Amino acid sequence: MLTPHSESDAAYVIRNAAAQGTKLAICGGNTRSGFGNITSAEETLSSRGLAGIVDYERAEMVMTAKAGTPVAEIEAALDENRQMMAFEPMDHRGIMGTHGASFGEPTIGGVFAANASGPRRLVAGAARDSLLGIRFINGQGQAIRAGGRVMKNVTGLDLTKLLAGSHGTLGFLTEVTFRVLPVPQTVETVVVSGLDDAAAAKAMAAAMALPVEVSGAAHLPASVKGRFLNGALPAKADGAEATVLRLEGLAASVAVRAEKLAAVMEAFGPVSRLGSEESRTLWREIRDVHPYADGTQKPLWRVSVAPSVGHQLVAALRLEAGVDAFYDWQGGLVWMRMEADPEAELLRRYIRALGGGHATLMRAFDAVRAGTPAFEPLPDAVAALSARVKQKLDPAGIFSPAKMG
Questions:
Q1: Which positions fall inside the FAD-binding PCMH-type domain (predicted)?
Q2: Regarding the domain delimited by 291-369, which CATH topology (the fold level of the hierarchy) does it fall under?
Q3: Does 186-287 match 291-369 in CATH topology?
Q4: Which of 181, 227, 354, 370 supports an S-S bond with 291, CB 3.0-4.6 Å?
Q5: This prediction's pTM
Q6: CATH number of the domain at 186-287, please?
Q7: 350/357 Cα distance (integer angstroms)
């Protein structure tokens, strides 16, 4: 593990690697170890030595931090001022099994490199939408600054957005600047019990269409419901499904909106409500995919499709394979654990048949990962464009080779 403690040290390491043709796996705290295609990297370059909050303008709600700063440190500083990262970055350690001394802490650079976004994504945008500026080192060892401290239109290639979600394949992040938002005064969750997947999709669509500002919409089938809140989610019967809808904001506003939402949802099924503390715990568990943080390496897919077809995809797959699943983002994000084979070809064929989307293999045994592309294969034209971008930023091809394709 190569751990530079300054940007100049990192640039020196990368220049040497490029000159010698040494392949580098890029990471932060390495908490997503085992994710992506297996690479041929010979060394690992970590940003965890580049840590610390550089600047925090509380009134402007903008923070700049070195890429290796632990997310916990970022969140602690924000908590003191009742501010937050609106996109709710998930903690991958549970599903990836990367707790313990062999691994570090999730880092803020890793959050943006993975574009890690949680349940509020459907109203607040993804991690990249909060990213204002970056500093990174390209494959020639050159330090580059992109973006700034305010949201503005750009002309040409937006490197800030390009690096977000690139998983260390285009450059080594050293610093990030991002906007934050105030923490809502309170949060409440409306729970609709007993809906099957198709009925839940209709209920969530109806809720999102209401002027009540739903900030989270998820459906938890009977197979996973008992794994949330230690089995304390309300239901009309043991094992019944739960469709959960989150409301946030000022206490008086949330109370009024919750009444309106509950009144409409009663047409779909029995309704109950969760208070602030239970709601915060529930949505954190949804964010971190708690049911599948099970200590296994069973293949786990993160599938993004149109919200109206997520349940159709799962129903079709269950006719041919063992599948357990639950739904976030109003049904548009499907977390899907396979009981045996990942069934990649079958899954992607059904996704195409249902109008398209993306399937990402989050984890699997190494022998399975070696033969299964982790990311959705790109159309030829997009793949050619991606290759040209990669060649410009990393001409020697030393950063995380083959990780994304």
A1: 1-183
A2: Alpha-Beta Plaits (3.30.70)
A3: yes
A4: 227
A5: 0.95
A6: 3.30.70.2190
A7: 10
